[in-house]
Structures are given as C-alpha cells and as structure tokens.
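re: ur question from yesterday

yeah so i grabbed the chain u mentioned. its 428 aa long if i counted rite. heres the sequnce exactly as i have it in my notes:
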Amino acid sequence: MTDAQETAADLRTTTGGGPPDDVDVPSDGLPIPLLEPREGIPPVVADQDSLARVIAAFAAGTGPVAVDAERASGYRYGQRAYLVQLRREGAGSALIDPVGCPDLSGLGEVLAGTEWILHAATQDLPCLREIGMVPTTLFDTELAGRLAGFPRVGLGAMVESVLGYALEKGHSAVDWSTRPLPEPWLRYAALDVELLVDLRDALEKELDRQGKLDWARQEFDAIASAPPAPPRKDPWRRTSGMHKVRRRRQMAVVRELWETRDRIAQRRDVSPGKVLGDAAIIEAALAVPATVHALSALPGYGQRMGRRQLDQWMAAVDRARALPEAELPQPGATPSGPPPPRSWADKDPAAAARLSAARTAVSALAEQLNLPQENLVTPDTVRRLCWEPPMQVTAASVAEALTEFGARPWQIEQVTVPLVTALTAAAV
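ran it thru and got these structure tokens back, copy pasting raw so excuse formatting
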C-alpha cells in the first residue's frame, strides 16, 4: 500500500465519499464497487426555484467544492455543458441541468473564493465559463496524480489506486443532451463527484510527502488564471488529412466545404462530423469534381446522400472552383517558433545536438523526480530554448528564457542547471 493509499484510508469515513456504513468492506484487497451515491441520486435541478435552493445550500456549505461537467462531444455542435455536478460538505450533491438553468453565475458567485476540485480541469473550465462558473482557486486531481507519479490518472484509475473504490465508467461517452437523462446516467454523474473531496485530500498529503505540493499549487494557479483560449485562425486548416492537400485550389475546396458544414452543423446543433466527415472533405478537395455525378462517385458522397445534400456540397465546390487566383488561400503560415525537430539535423546541426542533449537531461530528471517529462517542462519550451539559446548560456540567462516561455518558478528551479549543463556540453 502506498503512502497515498494509507492516507486515504483515514479519509474514507469522512463526509464526501465512500459506501454507506452498512456495506461490508472486503478484506481481499480488491477495490470496493461504489454503486450508489451516499445520499442517493439527487433530483435534477432544471428550474429557477430549485436552483435558488441549491445556491443557498452550497453557500452555507463548508470546505472545497467538487465540480464536474458533462458535454455531448461527438453529438452536438460545440462543447457546451449539458449537466453540472457538485458536492460540498454540508450541502451534499447536486445535479444541475444547464438547459433549464443556462445562467449559473449566481452559483459561481457564492462559490467565489472557494477551492474548486476538478478532474482534468482544462477540459471542463471552458464550458463552465460559458454558464457563469469561473473558479479563482482550484485543485486538479488529474494533474495532482501526474505530479505525484501515478502511471494512470483517469478518474476511475485514481479513485481505485488512491482510495480503493471502483467507479462504474460506462457512460462517459453518451449523448448528455438526451432528455430526460436516464437514471443510470444520473447515478454515474453523481458518483463522479462523490469521492473528489477524499481524492483531493489524499493527493494533497501525498504531494506534500514528496515535496511537490508547492509545485502543484503553482500549476493550479496557472490554470485558474489562464485567459480563455482565443478563437483559432483558419480552423478549416485543421481538417484531418489536410497534409494531403497541396494545391491552393484544393485548399479553397476544403475551406468552402468546411465552412458550409460548420454553418449547417451550428444551425442543426449537431456535431460537424455527423453532417460530413473530414475524409469526405479531403476526397472532394483532391478531386475537385466538376459535376454532381463526379462528386457522388467519391467516398463519403454515396447513395445514402440525397440530391439536395449533394447539391449543397457541389455548390461549395463550385464556389472554390470559381475563385480567382488572388482569392485562393495561401499555404499555411509558417508557425511561430522552431521548425519540426526532424529537420534540425539538416537545417542546424548544432541546434540538433543541443536538443538531443537537453532531451536526455530532461528525461533523466523527470525519471528521478517521478513525473512525466511534459509536466516537468513542456517539449515546446525545450525546443525553443535549444533552437535559439541565449548568447551567453548561464543559469541566469536560461532561467530568464524559461520565464519568457511561460515556465513556472518550480520548473525553472528544477530544470535550469541540467539544461545549462546540456547546452554547454553540446557546444563543445
């Protein structure tokens, strides 16, 4: 049993998780199936009066609040939340329907200053922000697990390895926009926050034991303070298979088809992939068909597609075919930063040598600290440093460069000396 599991053993009887008191705990070391929320499945909150009662209950609660959100990825357009789950000492658990209660800013306000516990926070924060819930302080149990060196950091794996309970995870990819939500889904959703407080407490003690608690707090603060991601420029360029498209006219076909698909998907509120697959867009772009008949012969535009649909896709292709040369999209802009590492040996052998030495140093240090390399320092930061190192490679200059690239103080403290050593050795 790890120290984290021993720590968690003392927490299993606290409010916030664990099976009911009348459930026998097996002594064979196997995880305990957690089949029901402690207080049962809470009713779904879908009106303002019920929401007001939840807000009052959570305002009167104490300690951190466990938060989770369910989306309908792959089913609906966008990444909006279709269910929000919360749990707090003194308030119990709540399931809130953002369709019926689209503005949760009142709940966000009463929880201002309270630590929010989320698992993989960066996945849920955008959809929570859309409905008025923005934490100022958070604890990310997935990231905490990475920093603590756990090999598997999914919620189910973490709950099992740290707390000794088994969560049923069969409904993670269902269509959460379904109404009414089936009872098994609601049970699953409530259980997702049932043990987050316990998991947070155990991980905090484990991180403290390893001397990594301050590191985690710096990471959590960075997530909480990060601004919303700006809209992607030319999102059509991210169409899967885009690397096959070489000519500007073909790029125009991708753009027209992607933008047409996006408008339809948004209007129908369905996932764009359900309107037209990326593979079909690429097929049409490569062929640039001149007629509906030619288009219908391509993969993705077969017999099950009606004439009206074919006509709308053909119209998009025709618009691309009719564009004057001056209005065709240019090849993708050169990304900021260094080129792909595979080309370094030819373009700049000295930089390639620096990168090889730096990667070796980071890998060795990450193994020593028992955490993933990408959490110790991002690969992009290492590449940028090695492509254009400071004129004088010193601890001060390397630390300054790392700061400019967004590294946190704990990361700078850990990697500066190994990186200085690697860059200096590579230059000899």
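noticed a couple things. The CA atoms of residues 12 and 18 lie 6 Å apart. also The chain is about 50% helix and 10% strand.
anyway ttyl
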